[in-house]
Design a protein that fits this description.
single chain; alpha+beta; Alpha-Beta Plaits; 2 helices; three-stranded antiparallel β-sheet
């Protein structure tokens, strides 16, 4: 089985989503619907909230399907 990783980036913040890990708890959507909305494509809008709010919500993902990467700005 091929595992896909999707990335959504803005400035130095990268949100990674690994769908095969997702348990569809909807914690991301209920906690920050301006960023995580499964009815939209793409379903992650990294411009929908301040980066700190996004990072805090991603850390609440129970399955680890969502993760963060902070890139250093060039």
């Amino acid at each position: 089985m091929k595992h896909i990783t999707k990335t959504y980036a803005i400035d130095d913040l990268v949100v990674k989503w690994e769908p095969h890990k997702c348990i569809h708890s909807a914690i991301c959507f209920h906690g920050l619907p301006s960023v995580f909305d499964p009815r939209k494509r793409p379903w992650v809008n990294v411009k929908g909230a301040p980066k700190n709010d996004i990072a805090e919500q991603v850390r609440k993902c129970p399955s680890g399907a969502l993760s963060l990467q902070m890139n250093e700005r060039a």
